[in-house]
Structure formats: structure tokens, C-alpha cells
Amino acid sequence: MLTELVAVPGGSFRMGSTSFYPEEAPIHTATVSAFAIERHPVTNAQFAAFVAATGYVTIAERPLDPALYPGVAEADLQPGALVFRPTPGPVNLQDWRQWWDWAPGASWRAPFGSGSDVADKPDHPVVQIAYPDASAYARWAGRRLPTEAEWEYAARAGSTAPYSWGDAPMVGGALMANTWQGRFPYRNDGALGWVGTSPVGTFPANGYGLVDMIGNVWEWTTTRFSSHHVVQQQSACCPPPADPDPAVNQTLKGGSHLCAPEYCHRYRPAARSPQSQDSSTTHIGFRCAADSRAAPSL
């Protein structure tokens, strides 16, 4: 069953931030037409239904093309993906290679490689999803992926505060999203008991009734990443790629369960991150959007 679509009224808003990371600037007025977006990220069960219906094979499950990765050893061209591995103790946070590891056999079915599975997580967001994988699911569902502007507009739900829920990371001491709790990257105390992904809807919905827009998993958008905002109307019309281009970065939004204030203070609507189209990891998922002529404009 597809996720319920929530109608979002069209309008203008102040997009971006100048208070955290340089790529979030400049703050500018963005305008989006009325559209609809899925209430929660696509789950393992939903993605499994797509694969069962179509026989689709994700990027992580395919051998890498030597022509796209010149100089890479043959052993490293086998199917697999990046997985997060906590470190034994404090490390230099400038070197991401200390907690990310290439795992042969890692895919949406086995997010951490051989011996892992998602059998007990049907309602968790699907991960190890590359950009073409998300696009393929959206086409099958008769939907599309959102632009960055649409995504941020929906996440803000009319708010101009730094966080979707207000001016502070927590509300009355309550955790509002699945983000890293403890000391990154070696001690995670769990978000409401969840270490890693959590079932969709575990944390409060925003003003539009959307859940997990912040935290849990990063989400793909159709907007190509640039080092700062390109101030223009963002179109949702661009066709998704049939094959990934490792030289092209798409914009991810929303932060994830790996976001910690000392390393990744990106659990905010304005936050954005680059990711190559062929990348799949244990903290990247997606949700779909759709055109909605029925939604009112403000």
C-alpha cells in the first residue's frame, strides 16, 4: 500500500539559513505551487512490494561499472554499499572514513551487509537507496520526488523557526526527532530507545501532519546540489536519470539518526547535504511527492 499523500498549499516562504552552515545561504524568497507529499518516508515493506511487483534491482545490488570507476580494484567493484560503524572511542571528526565502511553485499535487504536483514523492521524507512532507486519507485507509484524547495516548504509547515517545532532542539525536554543521542560517533544512547532507524511516526508530526521530515533518514530531492542556494524557481519537471552519474550530487534534506550537534547539526528544515547519485548508505531514504491541483494556494 502506498503512503497517504498530504496536500500542501502553494505559497512563498523564506528559504535557507545563515546561522549554521554556509551552503544553506543565502536566505531568499522561494515560491512553490500547490502539491502533495507522502506523510512518511517509504518503508521497507513498501519498497519490498515494489521490488516484488517489478523485479527491480537497486544500485547497491549491481556490480560497479569499471568505466565509471577507473583505477578501482576489481574486488572493490562488487555489489555493496556504505555502512555506519561506531568507533571504539573519540576520533577526529574531520575524517568520516573512520566510521563509514564499504560492505560487500550491503543493500536495502541487508543494510549492514551479510548477516543483517530488515525482517523485523517492516515499518522502518528503507535505506541503502540511491537516487535512481528512489526515482524508479516514484515512477512505479505514479508519483515523483520533491524538489528541495518543496521539501523545505513542507518541513517548515509555515514556521520560520530554526527547527520545525520551534527555536530550540527540544520542546519541554521532549525529543522531537530521531537524532544521535550521546557522543558521536562512538556512543549512541538511542532516541526514545531506537539506535539507528525508528518506525515511521515514532516522533511527533509537524504542522502539516507529516512525520519524520526531520531525523530518521536523509531524503533525496530532485535538486542538484550547489555550494550555496541558486535563487530561482525550482522545477519538478526534470526527468530522473536512468543510470546514476557518480560525478553529480543531488541535494539531501532532513538529517538522520546520525546527526549530532558536534558533527552534523542538520536536523533542521534549512539544512542540506550533497550526495552523489550512485551513493546508498544506512541513513539515506526518500519519500514521494505529486502534483496537486486540488490543494489551495496561499
UniProtKB/TrEMBL annotation:
Which Pfam family would be a valid example here? FGE-sulfatase
**GO molecular function, one example?**
formylglycine-generating oxidase activity
Q: Which domain of life is it from?
A: Bacteria
InterPro entries xref list = CTDL_fold (IPR016187), Sulfatase_Mod_Factor_Kinase (IPR051043), SUMF_dom (IPR005532), SUMF_sf (IPR042095)
Residues covered by the Sulfatase-modifying factor enzyme-like domain: 2-289
Q: Which PANTHER family match?
A: FORMYLGLYCINE-GENERATING ENZYME (PTHR23150:SF19), SULFATASE MODIFYING FACTOR 1, 2 (PTHR23150)
Protein name stated in the entry: Sulfatase-modifying factor enzyme-like domain-containing protein
What is the species of this protein? Answer: Mycolicibacterium sarraceniae
